[in-house]
Amino acid sequence: MIDPQTVKLPVIDAQAGTSDAQAPGAGVRKVYVETYGCQMNEADSEIVLSVMNGTGYEPTQDIAAADVIFLNTCSVRDNAEQRIHGRLTNISYYKKQRPELVVGLLGCMAERLRKQLLQEGSVVDVVVGPDQYRALPDLVEEARTGSKGLAVKLSRVETYEDITPLRTEGISAWLSVMRGCDKFCTFCVVPFTRGRERSRSLESIVREVEELSRHNFREVTLLGQNVNSYRSDGHDFADLLAAVAAVDPSIRIRYTTSHPQDMSDKLIETMAAWKNICNYIHLPVQSGSNRVLKLMNRTYTVEHYLERVARIQELIPDASLSTDIITGFPTETDDDHRRTLDLIARVGYDGAYMFKYSPRENTKAWAMGDDVPEAVKGARLAEIIDLQREIAHRNNQRHVGTVEEILVDGPSKRDEREWKGRTDTNKVVVFTRGDQQIGDYVPVSIQRASAATLHGAPLDSEGRPVYIPLQMTTTTA
Ligand code: 5AD
Ligand code: SF4
To answer: Which residue of 193, 212, 341, 424 lies most exposed, with the fewest beta carbons within 10 A?
Structure first.
């Protein structure tokens, strides 16, 4: 097994030529990465591209043009893994046409299933876990000569701190500040697939944000599986947020994901103190029943969670909250479910990711069985989704008639003539396009709202409309 701490990135050396991806006479080799799952995986894919680029591989968005195809995978629920198995079947089509193609399976599923993924007949050539991406160029080279490779050792120290991610162009950057998770929620594979918690140094993160500022990024999202347990050289996550916010007031700072147990007063106070730290907190609750929370090993009670929410609302009155909910955890009763609905209504989330419980082998909950029938899980999930949609719709109506500052991030998906952007509180806003540019902050007067989107008209710096919407005229007799 290759220890990531001792592996040196292969350097492009035209004279030696050994690890140079550009073979004599051949074009530049291309790598294609497809990312599944959480934002951590998005950030990791940019690390992978950077590592591969260091040996001369160019990224491509065109899978058919790729010499190397990587799937960066997720194991958190069974359906995520099933999708990837399906995708591998598609990819075998490319491999049949070009046997020299190298296919790599990376990330959590690689870590969980390991050599099972290399079994005979498998289209996969290399299997690489989240802490072994430095080994990718060597493994790919070996795969080109026909030997399959596996690198899944987890590390206690790897943070890829010295690797600058190869980011796709845009105004928003992911920045991973810590890796792994020590919480061991009983339903979750992450502590097994991503290993122990470890943090990057504050200085290296600040330096990276300075670099992002120089490259005109307008939004940085600090990432970690459990970001508010960040610790480095006596600095906690609140210290890190403040240090990062101080770099450039025109960069919005976001972060995800927080654990309710580590949502300290200091962290909330820091958010309140800095204008460019966004007033948006993703705070997964998972269940509204103390009995279930205990079985999940979430280490907080509903009362503690609500007290944290009250503190957030007190210090940051316009804070927007979102959450994750699992429905149908082993032994969940109708009463437990009702408590979850009550909690959702009480907090009034602006958004929620809602999932049916999916048993994962080797977790503690696996041994608890999966006793809530599929139909019951489905019905409970539907009820939760309906309630959440109603609440989000109601919350969004409160914005109608207000002016929101929007960071423009691109054209709206539905209509190219409209811009799309986000509020500080992470709400999507669509408005008629004028001469604004991507990356501009634009005041927008909100005119109507659905559960998912706010719609409005841009204002100029004096607060006057810069675009007068066409009046719909009806002819009446
Ligand atoms: N089943 C269903 N949902 C899960 N999550 C994590 N593990 C499971 C599982 N076994 C959800 C949690 C977590 C989010 C990232 O995924 O809600 O917060
Ligand atoms: Fe999984 Fe819990 Fe860690 Fe989140 S905090 S990654 S749910 S173990």
So the answer is: 341
Q: Which residues contact 404 (CB under 8 A, 6 or more apart)?
A: 423, 424, 427, 429, 443, 444, 446, 454, 456
For residue 467, the model assigns a pLDDT of 52
* pLDDT tier at 7, thresholds 50, 70, 90: very low
Confidence of residue 6 (pLDDT cuts 50, 70, 90): very low
Residue where a domain terminates, one of 368, 397, 426: 397
Asked whether residue 104 falls in the same domain as residue 32, the answer is yes
Distance 190 CA to ligand 2 centre (A): 6
Q: Which domain holds residue 140?
A: 4-12+25-151
CA contacts within 13 A on the Cβ side of 42: 13
Does 251 have pLDDT greater than 60?
yes
Report residue 470's pLDDT band, with 50, 70 and 90 as the boundaries: very low
Contacts of 285 (CB under 8 A, 6+ apart): 260, 305, 323, 324, 325, 343, 347
**In this structure, is residue 100 part of a structural domain?**
yes
pLDDT exceeds 90 at position 437: yes
Which among 151, 183, 211 is the end of a domain? Answer: 151
Least confident of 33-42, 132-141, 272-281, 452-461: 452-461
| Domain annotation covers residue 20 | no
Exposure string of 15-43, with b = 16+ CB inside 10 Å and e = fewer, is: eeeebbbbeeeeeebbbbbebbbbebbbb
In sequence order, what are the residues at sequence separation of 6 or more whose Cβ sits closer than 8 angstroms to the Cβ of residue 477?
Answer: none
CA–centroid distance, 113 to ligand 2, in Å, is 19
What domain count does the chain have? 4
pTM of the model: 0.91
Mean local confidence (pLDDT), 147-151: 94
- Lining residues, ligand 2, CB within 6 Å: 181, 183-185, 188, 190-191, 225-226, 259
Question: How many A from CA of 333 to the centre of ligand 2?
Answer: 23
Residue 225 alpha carbon, nearest atom of ligand 2: 6
Task: Tell me which of 186, 189, 225 to substitute to probe ligand 2's pocket, judged by most ligand atoms within 8 Å of the beta carbon.
Answer: 225
Q: pLDDT (tens digit, 9 = 90+) per residue, 296-345?
A: 999 999 999 999 999 999 999 999 999 999 999 999 999 999 999 999 99
- Residue from 326, 364, 368 whose mutation best tests the ligand 1 pocket (most atoms within 8 A of CB): 326
Largest pairwise CA distance in the chain = 85
| Residue 111, domain member (yes or no) | yes
Does 444 map to a domain?
A: yes
Q: Are residues 36 and 122 in the same domain?
A: yes
Rounded Cα distance, 378 and 393, in Å:
22
The CA 356 to ligand 2 mean position distance, Å, reads 16
Query: Picking from 5-14, 23-32, 144-153, which range would have the lowest pLDDT averaged per residue?
Result: 5-14
The predicted structure's pLDDT at residue 460: 82
